[in-house]
Amino acid sequence: MSTNDAQGKSPDAQSADPAPHPDLNLLRTFLAVYRSGSFTGAAQLLGLSQPTVTTQMRALERQTGRQLFERLPRGVAPTAVADELAARVAPGLDLLAAATGPDAAAGRRARPVHLAGPAELLCVSVLPALAPLVAEGVRLRVAAGLTDALLDELRAGRHDLVIATVRPRGRALSSVPLADEEFVLVAAPEWAERLRGPLAEEGPSVLHPVPLVTYAEDLPIARRYWRHVFGRRLSCPAAVTVPDLRGVKAAVTAGAGFTVLPRYLCAEELASGALVLLHEPDEPPINTAFLVQRPGVPDNPHVIRVRDHLLHSARTW
To answer: What is the C-alpha separation between 291 and 295, in angstroms, rounded?
Structure first.
């Protein structure tokens, strides 16, 4: 009787033994690639070189015997196998990171929280809301920009939290609704006196000769208002473009023409009469802002404090 027979195993059964479990470093790197959507982003998050990340992912794919990511022209896309693996390993790795991270030691000073979003919302609502946390020792590093670029930077590890004007797609980022912003059509009193009556009687074509002040050349906010409220395409060009809605508001308040603004940004001017509503639709257009972060438990506890405080404060915006 052979040794294999004596042990009740055939040679084929011995060769089918399961592969060894991947080590934690490979799984951490895998999770970073999965959440950032690219090898480059994972390398920045982990402080590794991109070739090291590539080598580790090849090693993990050899160990699992399955393809984990499809290479794209820009980044990677997880396969179904990667989705399943991430669901299995993420909770444990996140708990381990939270317990052993650089800020886990009691009394150690937490790193600054890197927060980004639209400049106007940051300045008018977000920073005033976070002032109590700053007084308690939370440090902030704030950046302003457009949503698509900020979300790319979040995936790459440059930010901890991003306030986005659209919900991000995919599984690499998690998001929750933060606040709704209502858009209003406004002008200075001298324009409003001339326009409100004709606008109600004849429709939005009466605004075409009036200077339009807007955020960008493609009229993003005004176009949305026209489509939602008037059911037609906005065809008049911009007279003034200012890449900051606070500048748009200043120009219109001074009498430069008309514009569409978020109500929160011009609430004081509307209350004082410095700006006047040109139109009051039954259902004004509304956009939802989202608070976005990478999935998992951050290793900086102040990220959680800032996130929770913003979600609570936004109820009153």
So the answer is: 12
Same domain, 215 and 281: yes
What pLDDT does residue 274 have?
98
Decide if 270 is inside a domain: yes
Task: Phi first, then psi: give them for residue 293, nearest 5 degrees.
Answer: -150, 170
CA dist 45 and 67 (Å) reads 22
Assess whether 220 and 272 both reside in one domain: yes
108 phi-psi bin (left φ>0, alpha ψ -120 to 50, beta other) = beta
208 shares a domain with 187:
yes
Q: What is the largest CA-CA distance in the chain?
A: 106
- The pLDDT value recorded for residue 109 is 60
- Taking residues 68-88, what's their average pLDDT? 88
β-sheet bridge partners, residue 181: 287
At 148-182, the pLDDT tens digits run 999 999 988 899 999 999 999 877 788 999 999 99
Report the number of distinct structural domains present in the chain: 3
Considering only CA atoms, which of 120, 197, 210, 226 is closest in space to residue 165? 120
Q: What is the pLDDT of residues 210-239, one digit of tens each?
A: 999 999 999 999 999 999 999 999 988 999
- Tell me, yes or no, whether 129 lies in a domain: yes
| Token output for 106 | 């009691």
Question: By the 8 A CB rule, do 292 and 177 touch?
Answer: no
**φ, ψ of residue 239 in degrees (nearest 5):** -85, -35
DSSP conformation class of 118: -
Give one word for 193, left, alpha or beta, with left for phi > 0 and alpha for psi -120 to 50. alpha
